[in-house]
Amino acid sequence: MNMSCLPNSHTDNVLIGVLLTQVLSEGQVQPGQCAFYEECGKNPSIENPLIPPIVPCLSYTPARALKGAHYLKLKSVCPMLDRGENATLACCSIKQLRSLELSLTLSKAVLIRCPSCAENFAHLHCINTCSPNQTQTVNVTETRNVTYMGTNVKVVLGYQAYLSTAFAEGSFKSCQNVRIPATGGFAISTMCGRYGAKLCTAQRWYDFQGDSSNGLAPLDIDFKLIPPGVTAGVPAGMVPYNGRTLRCNETTPTGGEVCSCQDCQESCPLMPPPVMPAGPFRLMGTDGFLVISILLLCLLLVAFLLYLLVSCWVKPLIDPSEVSCTDKNSLAAQEFLGSLFQSWGTLMASHPLKVLLAAAIVVAVFATGLMYIELTTDPVQLWSAPNSRARKEKDFHDKYFDPFFRTNQLILTAPGRKGHIYDSLLFGRQNFSGILEKDLLTQLLALQTRIQFWSSDLNRTATLKDVCFAPLNPSNPGMTDCAVNSLLQYFQNNVTNLDAKVNMTELGVTKEVDWRDHFIYCVNSPLSFKDITDLGMSCMADYGAPVFPFLAVGGYENEDFTNAEALILTFSLNNYNRDDPRFKVALEWEQIFLNIVQEYQRDPSNNFTFAYMAERSLEDEINRTTSEDIPIFMISYLVIFIYIAVALGEYTSFKRILVDSKFLVGLGGILVVGCSVLASMGFYAWIGIPSSLIILQVVPFLVLAVGADNIFIFVLEHQRDVRRLGETREMQIGRVLGNVAPSMLLCSVSESICFFLGALSTMPAVKSFALYAALAVLMDFLLQMTAFVALLSLDARRQDSNRCELVCCVRVGTRRPMKPNEGLLMPLMRKYYAPVLLHPVSRVVVVGIPTYFVTTKGFNFTSAAGMDAVCSSVGCDQFSLTQKIQYATEYPELSYLAVPANSWVDDFIDWLNPGSKCCRLYTLGSETGNFCPATAWVCGKRCIKAPANGVVRPTVEQFNRFLPDFLGNRPDLQCPKGGLGAYDKAVIRDESGEIIATRFMAYHTSLTNSQEFTKALEKTRELAHNITMGMREVPGTAPDFEVFPYTVTYAFYEQYLTIVPEGLFNISLCLLPTFVVCCLLLGMDLRSGLLNLFTIIMITVDTVGIMTLWGIDYNAVALINLVTAVGISVEFVSHLTRSFALSIQLTHIERAKEATATMGSAVLAGVAMTNLPGIIVLAFAKAQLIQIFFFRLNLIITLLGMAHGLIFLPVLLSYFGTEKHLCDGQTRCFLCPHHPTTVQYTVR
To answer: By its UniProt entry, which SUPFAM superfamilies does this protein fall under (predicted)?
Structure first.
């Protein structure tokens, strides 16, 4: 990128003159004296250069006065040396100026964004090549005799260039922050060798420019940077060049504007620092919420103690005149419901076979809808609402742009494998970790090339090239066009390059250099087309793009890449619509990829430890939780079934075990649950509402918990009851059902309405779950009121006949006892648990997670104002789209953006700039006037003329004419600004040529959890809104024009922005019917309804608290389980509340004891003991989703339900329960809440 670099014509009379005046000994150091002049062919010592290494002839001669074309060319290329025609002296010929111009064109392609930087860069090489005082700044150190054009000449192969540190540092500083929009990185990183942008200094920058091994410098230049006043080491007569450099915020003498803020920090406006987020709420030096919670707890305890004191001294009597309308309604409601269900139960029990047949027909009709069931497995469709902002933005992006490419990644480590020390000739002693061994890299290369398979969709063998993302050759990709990123791409996936080694001499020391030297260089300079070793290999991937080190290795600290502990292999595949046959091919490729990796993983001879994922892995994992863990669920249901079958039995004597068992009743209860789920799924399949795997896993579990409770309440009540005189079996079953069915109705209706209201959720997974659960619970209740009553009637008939279960023809002689059977739990609860729990002392103790910025239609990119509002190079608005993103990246801890956005507008402007050779036109042949690529040599015309101020802005006609050429131009060394690969799919135009969608790609910081993903989404949306408001101020912009951020994860994490209010809304909707239904079915008993609601709220709140302590994230799956928790809590609470409200005992404590013993035992047996065995089995599931959100969360819900329903609620009712109780249909008893001695009886 310096000196003369490209061949020109041939020697002429000037060369002859040079040869005649050439001095073969060291020339005199004096002003006006040249050290070399004219071109003398190529450098014979450079092998495999990237551009022709043209070197000058040694010539200690006076500087020449320039005139005519020679002077005009100098004025154009090196204006800083211009002193006027005939007054300008120089040490370069016109051919050297042409070669220098072409050489500088390469650097200008990346530096022209900042005119002062480009000017300073040209200044240096103009001084070295053309300065009239060349011998004062240049000291030739290496020459060689060569034959050029038939003449023996001496050429310069190396020299020392003396520069003042002020000039060197000023030039370096002006270029230090110039960006490459396509990568978001710095241009200096491509010009500093192995040091990259971070470690680059002025000396290292110049050293790279003067290193002929980089493939760009035609000869070796040893830059000597001399501080002011220092003479040591400076040859006599030499004067370090100390010309004036331009600061990046200065205009250039040729009229160039100041550099933009993105390329020059000095040009940035003064910006107030961003407002830092508020710190945690604190009081008295500790967590403020904790302090408030403690204070509220203390106030609550004080209020409770005051209540106890008042209740001990005040002993009110309840007069019969105080009987309220509510009390009368409560009794009437119970009598009405009881008689209704009694009649219904008697009817069902009297015709069991007909009822079972009718129920089976109804279920079968509903279940036939399963033929049309549609399972949703796409995570986006599951968790992102179709009308949500993220989903709309995703649909917009996918409509105009290709879907986000599919990522398949393999991370390999070699734990325990020892590393080694490598003594590099160029880089010194380096420690290489155990994973960075050649044999492992060879194995990785073999693994990388194995994947191929027969595709029925393509009717041929498919390989990576059929589905790969090939940015630089998308139309007809070969294997080397596929975007595969790994360490092996530093060797172009070529084993010959990996095996290459050569002896190299540096500073008199000769050593062998091999793949390790190339690796060290490439990870520090990934954009290099040639390393500085004698290997001379490129660092660019075989598909033409750079491989940044974070894409190749992992597990390193502070950019110490040779100590990396992991190799990263990433395959990028095209993403197709699901109805495209290529989508299936991509899925097949990914499956083969996973199979091969798993095969390697199982092979004991391999040296790697694998971590891997495919794009399909998330969807596969969702499917795997069903397929792989189905046996776990089956075992769970089997355990529950065995428990129900055993626990429902009476077991009055050993001889009657087979008679008194309830195996078939338990099986029938399970079938009722299964049929209710099938009916629900079939119905919704009929009407086209899709299901999901979560529904298949959660809804049966939920309905089983609800249904088993009702089964236990009904069966245990039947077992505890004694048939009355003259009462038939069917009448007894009807009477028992009349006693318990209102309670079952209370819970089932509450839960069903709860879930139906939950369907108002905007989250598709929550909505569909709520719909399926609501209907399943309702169907379960209806089947229990019909089929299960009939089944119990048949079983009672068998039991009355003393026939054995399963073997009905066998009778047992021992007759059934006529006394009621309380079972095991009820006596324990009545004699021990309830008295201890409701003891005066114990009563008091208990109450206590890359992003695109996408633009929509309605913005005029073709106008100068439109370009200025988007770009970030010279002449652009300081608050443009890309500039605002740049400002945000300066505070990554707040914006969650790490790298500025790439910008096709900026690179298009640079591509058009006549200072580069990117956009030119053919001037000969049939293509005359058409676009001519930089690699062609017959393009004599620039696309546009150079503007006086250096600010390139095409006209509307030029914009529309050359934009397609830019987007289709493949970037290369001659023109790195070509848009193919980086931008060809980033600009969408309609038939008229109007731009209707574009995107600008930035990068987030490393996001590791849902909180960070959510904050990143929130902050990028804020930034995009700010950009939108600014761009709408550009004349001609449509009022509905918008800029929005998009990345593939936003659709998943948007739920976290609203999940707290969404969760509160859904749970509140679920809580509402539990209160309303409880009040209605208890005859407008508000107090019981409130106590019932309060306990359910406590269970829900405590569940959320323990979720945090146990590391269970609050997300949509957790919300589904919290909605489920409300439903299950109803089972733990409502039965007990109703039993207390209807108890005829005299005091609150006695009523609470009775409710705990009778209904509490049924709840314990039916809900808690039914759930717990099945939940514990889920702990053995392999899927993390099952372990966390089903095992942990359901265990929490069940245990908290037990604690609140069987401990807290009885105590709460004993203090605050309703004062009334019902003796029977004719007698109403009134009592003081806590003093049984003050009781009055009134008979009506």
So the answer is: Multidrug efflux transporter AcrB transmembrane domain
Supply 957's token pair.
Answer: 């006609």
The partner residues of 932 in beta bridges, in order of sequence, read 920
Asked whether 1178 and 1190 are in contact (CB, 8 A), the reply is: yes
Do residues 722 and 820 lie in contact, with contact meaning Cβ atoms separated by under 8 Å? yes
pTM beyond 0.90, yes or no: no
Give the chain's radius of gyration (CA, Å). Answer: 42
In the chain, what's the furthest Cα-to-Cα distance?
142
Contact status, residue 1158 vs residue 1139, Cβ threshold 8 Å: yes
b/e per residue, 364-401, with b = 16+ CB within 10 A?
eebbebbeeeeebeeebbbbbbeebbbbebbebbeebb
Could you report the per-residue pLDDT of 391-434, keeping only the tens digit for each? 888 888 888 887 778 888 888 888 888 999 999 998 899 999 99
Q: How far apart are CA 641 and CA 635, in angstroms?
A: 10
Give the number of other CB atoms < 10 A from CB of residue 1239: 14
And the tokens for 577? Answer: 């619509």
Q: How far is CA 118 from the centre of its chain?
A: 40
pLDDT exceeds 60 at position 813: no
Helix 325-350, helix 789-800: angle, nearest 10:
60
Of the ranges 374-388, 504-518, 799-813, which is most confident? 504-518
How far is it, in rounded angstroms, from Cα 397 to Cα 374?
A: 26
Burial tier of 291 (Cβ tally within 10 Å: 0-12, 13-18, 19+): middle
- Please compute the mean of the pLDDT values over residues 1139-1162 and round it to a whole number: 80
DSSP string, 872-941: -STT--TT-HHHHHHHHHT-HHHH-EEEPPP-HHHHHHHHH-TTSSSSEE--SSTTTTSEE-TT-S---E
Assign 115 to helix, strand or coil.
helix
In tens, the pLDDT along 1188-1220 reads 777 788 788 888 888 888 888 888 888 887 765
Q: What is the pLDDT of residue 1244?
A: 31
Through-space distance between the first and last CA atoms of the chain, rounded to whole angstroms: 111
Residue type, 728: T
How far apart, in whole angstroms, are the C-alpha atoms of residue 304 and residue 1059?
A: 35
d(CA 520, CA 108): 28
**pLDDT tens sequence across 131-164:** 999 999 999 999 999 999 888 999 999 999 999 9
pLDDT over 70 for what percent of the chain?
Answer: 86
Tokens of 204: 């290292």
Give the tokens for residue 161.
Answer: 């260039």
Q: What is the DSSP string of 618-684?
A: HHHHHHHHHHTTHHHHHHHHHHHHHHHHHHT----SGGGHHHH--HHHHHHHHHHHHHHHHHHHHHH
To which H or E segment does residue 821 belong?
none
Answer whether 753's CB lies under 8 Å from 1073's CB: yes
Q: Which two tokens stand for residue 242?
A: 């100390």
Closest CA to 643 of 1194, 1178, 1172: 1172
